């Protein structure tokens, strides 16, 4: 398994920038690989993708030099296992509510001794040819555990209330903050400057720092990206490919005299 460049950048103190992949299409992913972004999140929750198409987009991302992450559709063994086996370098997991759910996620996503991920040669390790000898299976498992990111998404009050315990769990590599659903869950939808919301974000950041876990957040506001870096976030997922495309062409259309 190749080195996870996103993890390497964050581990070295760098600030990473990515976006959500919603449009689909190999050419779209190829273009994203030419942007200078560090990572892309292939959205199996809200996007129209299945495992087979996700595998193709992961391949295109790798060829384009951008780290492919994937957001799973649900908290289940097949949803987690399949995306890792086709080569996702990390998983964003939505709708987390409890500590027990996160422990199950670790069980699904990490090999022993950390978890209980099922072992099978697959695309992630060249169908076993990266580690052909039986005695190298342990090394394969160790590298996969090390190089794949498990990022539960804090987007519910339940997750927020247990964030210190969740970030303490071995096998959790970091937290992905979903501000829209988190604010909705808190009863303050879209009020990102509300003191309660700001306190929640600070609490998540502190939990990540205290347990040496990565912190990632989504924003649709370009001006907020540097602010989040300054607050201490390791990475920001800015907007989504569809929104950026529409905005860019709207700006072009507005500037052209017709």
Description:
- There is one protein chain.
- This protein is of the alpha/beta class and 258 residues long.
- The protein has helices at residues 5-11, 26-32, 51-64, 77-85, 99-109, 137-147, 157-161, 163-168, 179-185, 195-210, 222-231, 241-255, and strands at 16-21, 39-43, 67-71, 90-93, 149-154, 174-177, 214-219, 235-240.
- Helix 2 runs parallel beside helix 3 (51-64) and helix 4 packs parallel to helix 5 (99-109).
- The model has no long low-confidence stretch (mean pLDDT 96).
TL;DR of this structure?
The protein is α/β, with parallel strands linked by helices and 258 residues long.
Topology, pairings included?
Blueprint: H1 5-11, E1 16-21, H2 26-32, E2 39-43, H3 51-64, E3 67-71, H4 77-85, E4 90-93, H5 99-109, H6 137-147, E5 149-154, H7 157-161, H8 163-168, E6 174-177, H9 179-185, H10 195-210, E7 214-219, H11 222-231, E8 235-240, H12 241-255
Parallel strand pairs: 1-2, 1-8, 2-3, 3-4, 4-5, 5-6, 6-7, 7-8
